[in-house]
Specification:
Two copies of one chain form a homodimer.
Chain A: H1 4-12, H2 14-25, E1 28-29, H3 30-35, H4 41-54, E2 57-62, E3 65-70, H5 72-99
Antiparallel strand pairs in A: 1-3, 2-3
Helix pairs in contact in A: 1-4, 2-4
The structure holds a DNA duplex (30 and 30 nucleotides).
DNA sequence: AGCATTAGTAAGCAATCACTTACGTAAGCA
DNA sequence: TGCTTACGTAAGTGATTGCTTACTAATGCT
């Protein structure tokens, strides 16, 4: 899925955003991701599921390890939504400013 | 405020996103905004407060009416955060792809 | 085979959220 | 001055969320 709501919900949580930012720098194992966090490993696992379902990250299994990396599909979906909305938003803002002259 | 968490949280709710999208098209009165929604007027009022606190919209009072319009500060804050993150994300994605060759 | 490692799932719980109805407040208007 | 319009705030409630501990599943290692 690349539903807009799920994307925003996924990134609304600070822990999840932190996880995504770290994965964005480079691919990481689930366990290593958990180590840098204040919450327990299961909590991280649940957060990663939300990010996966949103289409922001993807997993690749390698033995017992799971390598998390950025999924460009979700990133692209969000970018396109925002570009559209930002565009009309800033356009409306300009028109409102002009109306004041 | 233009805190990143508040920005994402504000847009994570579908009702709030709808409100923001409508305001993005053109400035609107609080009452008119409520008319297009399925929830009650007080609910809309509460949502508008969240959008205001996030810095995504701003109000201008005119008698008893309140005109809501886009606040470019919040929009800009979110855009800059995303540009940074998307950049590193897609960069990491490219590097991962190259590593596979 | 048996134990350790890696990671997801289940169950339960306190905190937060989005919603409703009821109320408060300030400006228009007769 | 009293009634109406426009809107925010308060209080209460069911649903959802993020967290924890306990458990399960699958692979690695000796």
């Amino acid at each position: 899925m690349t539903n807009i709501s799920t994307l925003f919900v996924a990134l609304a949580d600070p822990t999840r955003r932190k996880l995504f930012e770290r994965i964005a720098v480079r691919s990481m194992l689930a366990g290593d991701l958990a180590k840098g966090m204040r919450v327990t490993r299961p909590a991280v696992s649940q957060h990663l599921k939300v990010l996966r379902d949103a289409g922001l990250v993807k997993v690749e299994q390698e033995g017992t390890r799971r390598i998390y990396s950025v999924d460009p599909r979700g990133v692209e979906a969000m970018r396109s939504y925002l570009n559209r909305t930002w565009d009309t938003a800033l356009q409306a803002f300009k028109q409102a400013a002009e109306r004041k002259d």
